[in-house]
Design goal:
Length: about 180
């Protein structure tokens, strides 16, 4: 929800910048057509063009607004840092996440598999220190993109845990049939 909130604010900002750029461009065009003195016409044309271009450039890669989001209890941190002792998950879930036989190929744990997917798909093979501190630490000032990344990673973790739950439910149903 926070990412959608920031997206809305940033979208309004970009719309205002785009409209401002178009208006400045139009006014500059009209002013240069009306002004007859050559040096003033040139100055207005250059000034208006630069202002319009500047406003347009601000929409190319906008940093946008930020939102402070703190999370002392960070489920992503535990997967990322792989501590020896678990403080965030029920012990049974933790054991399943760290058992290689539960993964598809059986060569890495589910926890390692999740982390590898994050590195490959969320961070394009490399995460910078500031983003790592933000996402896997205690929080801080998030931009919209960071919040979307965090939500995606939580969804991937949730999907893995739900898959484990589904496997256990199937096992229980199978055992119940045997009675």
């Amino acid at each position: 929800m926070a990412a959608a909130y920031l997206d809305g604010i940033n979208s309004k900002r970009n719309t205002r910048l785009t409209v401002g750029s178009v208006i400045i461009g139009a006014l500059t065009t009209v002013a240069t057509a009306v002004i007859t003195k050559n040096s003033v016409q040139t100055a207005v044309g250059i000034g208006g063009g630069l202002t319009s271009a500047g406003l347009g450039a601000l929409t190319i890669n906008p940093k946008g607004k930020q939102l402070e989001f703190e999370h002392d209890h960070n489920l992503l941190r535990t997967i990322w840092s792989e501590p020896k002792t678990n403080t965030d998950y029920p012990e049974f879930v933790w054991s399943m996440l760290h058992e290689k036989s539960f993964s598809n190929k059986g060569d890495v744990t589910l926890s390692q598999s999740i982390k590898n997917r994050w590195i490959q798909f969320e961070f394009d093979g490399h995460i910078d220190q500031d983003q790592e501190t933000l996402l896997f630490g205690k929080g801080g000032y998030y931009r919209s993109d960071d919040l979307h990344t965090r939500a995606t990673m939580i969804n991937q973790l949730q999907s893995t845990i739900r898959s484990l739950n589904q496997d256990l439910t199937s096992l229980i149903a199978f055992i119940a049939q045997m009675d």
